[in-house]
Amino acid sequence: MTGGGLLVAGTTSDAGKSVVTAGICRWLVRQGVKVAPFKAQNMSLNSFVTREGAEIGRAQAMQAQACRVEPTALMNPVLLKPGGDQSSQVVLMGKPVGEMSARGYHGGRQQQLLGTVLDCLTQLRGTYDAVICEGAGSPAEINLRRTDIVNMGVARNAGLPVLVVGDIDRGGVFASFFGTVALLPPADQELVAGFLVNKFRGDVSLLEPGIDMLHGLTGRRTYGVLPFQHGLGIDEEDGLRVSLRGTVRESVVAPPVGEDVLRVAVCAVPLMSNFTDVDALAAEPGVVVRFVDRPEELADADLVVVPGTRGTVKALEWLRERGLANAIVRRVAEGRPVLGICGGFQILGEHIEDEVESRRGHVDGLGVLPVRVRFAREKTLTRPVGKALGEHVEGYEIHHGVAEIAGGEAFISDDKGHSLDGCRVGQTWGTHWHGSLESDGFRRAFLREVAAAAGRRFVPAADTSFAALREEQLDRLGDLIEQHADTDALWRLIESGAPQGLPFIPPGAPA
Question: Does this UniProt record's set of keywords contain Cell membrane (predicted)?
């Protein structure tokens, strides 16, 4: 028997599809429903490694956590990782299969993947009571409809009802809802069941006349109005939502435990990947995290982080052009803490041999760690476990670069003290492991080292659990759906599909 399903589409990118999907998943699992997330095609530099060594979008990993299930490649069969304005690495069923231009992908390759996408969805629907699917961008991108495998293309082939999410905080939500439906061909319109308003501020009664008029114009109901809430943007996929000089999250954390705060500056390198690595730092009371793009912004930082990037050589050049490279080298000479993660670790090394990513051959690094990096064609995709600073640490690796370490201290070791990854020289640290700072004991030990080196009277909170904070956020998303959406109507939609007889809204688009 095939399980129920729903496709959460949006009027635009960043309308809130990922968090709404996660919220519906968490609401369902709390009702005892066995549920899984699904996104046929994701474009993101924020990725994750599953237990079986498959690379998928971090948003789908987060949604799997909302479902309380282990993420798998079935949940995100196609992942596109931009490498520049014109091309992306195509990751199929968790493994990279090559680079492709946007024209080449949409010109034929994408449609060839529809069978794989539908097979994955069928497998999930055969295993779970419900599968909550997330679309990409807008379903009304009529220039891409012919080859679409993530919005109406998958909805029509799988017979899924569609809920369209609109961000009212941006304005124009009613026009966006109406226009989205009106630009779809009749067969697609039949599956669009209705709308969900996201990020509303104020008195809902003032919105009700517009909701009633929208129903009259389209014959489709609004399934809920979700209020604006701070701090719900977990594991975004499409880029850095916050300003370069803004905070990582808007959520309020507890006051510092010690007398001082700890200031963390994250270099906002091009093609930044897995910037979620610093979320665990931002969750610590008394740690202030900001993204920076000027050397003077490093002056008062107690820790500088050079994050992961899809373009290591490009990021290195950017750091040099901005004057950030020299500022980092000066920090190292002064014994001030610097942490490089994945591509950032490679940048801190002596040199890079890259015939794979940038194809630039030999490139000198910043030379502050005794590390030489060679880019291999095979991508490393693992979920390692080790010890660092006397504490248990877990992470995940996603990189082509292979590091040859010729000195310094091991950063992460196994239980017998043998080096597993990374390097430390004084107060300069580097590791390929993403997610390591989510290990609470290790994060506290690392922050104590940073505070001591920076001369700050900062004390890590003894009871901060990043996993518990993540669960609290997911429960808040579930609460939003439970309290502000018509959950009975949503369940009927998931179980029985789109209502019959939904009216066609002209002009439509060619089928």
Answer: no
Interval 150-166 mean pLDDT: 97
Amino acid at the residue 181: V
Residue 267 appears among annotated catalytic residues? no
The DSSP letter of residue 195 is E
Number of domains in the chain: 2
Catalytically annotated residue among 400, 432, 434, 484: 434
230: annotated active-site residue: no
Instruction: State what percent of residues in the chain have pLDDT above 90.
Output: 84
In a domain, residue 243? The reply is no
pLDDT at position 232: 65
Percent of the chain past pLDDT 70, that is, above it, reads 94
Give the Cα separation of 23 and 21 in Å (integer).
Answer: 5
Pair (456, 479) in one structural domain = no
Q: Looking at the domain assignment, is residue 421 inside a domain?
A: yes
pLDDT of residue 292: 95
CA distance readout (Å), 93 to 97, 198, 276, 280, 396: 10, 31, 23, 28, 17
222 with 149, same domain: the answer is yes
Residue of 342, 399, 400, 432 with catalytic role: 342
The CATH number linked to 357 is: 3.40.50.880
